[in-house]
Amino acid sequence: MPHTPRPSFGIMTAPSQVDYHDVLRVWCEADGIPEIEHAWLFDHLMPIGGDPSGPAYEGWTLLSALAARTRRLRLGVLVTSNRFRPPAMLAKIATTVDIVSGGRLDFGIGVGSRPGHPLARREYEAHGLPFQDSARAVASLAEACTVIRRLWTETEPFDFHGTHVRLTGAFGNPKPVQRPHPPILIGGRSSSTLRVVAEHADLWNIPGGDLDDCVRRSALLDRYCAEIGRDPASITRSIHLPVSYDRSGVTRDAIGDAVGAGFRHIVLGLPAPYPADVARWVTDELITTTA
User: Fold this and answer.
1) Which helix H or strand E contains 240, and what residues bound it?
2) The predicted structure's pLDDT at residue 291
3) What is each CA distance from 182 to 52, 151, 153, in whole angstroms?
4) Residue 3: per-residue pLDDT
5) Stated pTM of the model
């Protein structure tokens, strides 16, 4: 009987409607708790919840700062919007964070904000960024993953002439600490995105909420892997679950259900404001009781 790996647990602190020092406090606390193995930010340039004019920090800049202040946690952005940064630039940013962290980066990427979310859509117009239709965005994601991996691994300059990405003399130096490259986590639930996951991802993340749908999407990913000759088990299934401080039993049940459904990488979303000693609370109330 094949061995089933134990689940890993992490936290997500959305860097919006909070202060830098609030996030830093939680990450530093979590860094000292072995049961919390990874920590995540999100990638929005303006708030998508709460006060629309409230603070929102740029995810990769903040991640680098947190990487320098922690020693153990694996860390990443859940997930980077491929619409925000040219992929060669993103590869350089991610390499820098992997080096600053001593090789602890999990590289999270996705298509970008869903077009039906008005608060997410406005950040593109506010920053002069184009918002492509979904088909173009998914195709761009596939090319971005190809280019980023090549920049991380190839030792000679190369040209890339894709439909959406065009590079001349592309070369990445330095290389990431992790070999052959940092793990690639792709987030998303659409069938077209899942085909990109099957081709490129080491981990696949989906927001929780409708577990039956998550299970169906996971089965679809299995099918897409089989179509290209990839072992579906080589892609770790990751799920983001919101934490309720007041109803910890509901959160524990959601964790148990997700683990039972085959999700082995659990990201616990912490709502702000963060209570004192929240990382210890998460460990005692949610992780050790369900792991």
Assistant:
1) strand 236-242
2) 61
3) 34, 12, 10
4) 61
5) 0.96
Amino acid at 167: L
Query: Which residue in the block uniquely carries the two structure tokens 């920090």?
Result: 57
Among the residues of 173-277, which ranges form H helices?
Answer: 191-200, 211-227, 248-260
Query: For 66-87, what is each residue's pLDDT tens digit?
Result: 999 999 999 999 999 999 999 9
Q: Spell out, as residue ranges, where the chain has pLDDT lower than 70.
A: 1-3, 114-116, 291
β-pair type (265-269, 8-12): parallel
Residue 42 CB contacts under 8 Å (≥ 6 apart), including other chains? 12, 14, 15, 16, 59, 77, 78, 79
Q: Which of 54, 109, 69, 36 is nearest to 288 (CA)?
A: 36
* Contact by Cβ (8 Å): 22, 29: no
CA angle, 10 then 15 then 18, to 5°: 115
In sequence order, what DSSP letters do the residues of 20-88 get, joined into one string?
Answer: HHHHHHHHHHHHT-TTEEEEEE---SS-SSS-TTS-B--HHHHHHHHHHH-SS-EEEETTEETTTS-HH
By the 8 A CB rule, do 196 and 186 touch? yes
Residues 6+ apart with CB under 8 A from 267: 10, 11, 12, 38, 40, 78, 205, 238, 239, 240, 241
Q: Give the number of C-alpha atoms closer than 13 A to the C-alpha of residue 236, restricted to the C-beta side.
A: 18
Tokens 């987030």 sit on residue:
187
237 Cβ neighbours under 8 A, 6+ residues apart: 203, 204, 218, 262, 263, 264, 265
CA–CA–CA angle 265, 270, 276 (5° rounding): 125
Closest CA to 173 of 144, 145, 153, 159: 153
Give CA–CA dist 174/152, Å, rounded: 8
User: What is the CB-side half-sphere exposure of residue 97 using CA atoms within 13 A?
Assistant: 26
Measured CA to CA in angstroms, residue 31 lies from 5, 69, 95, 271 at distances of 22, 9, 21, 19
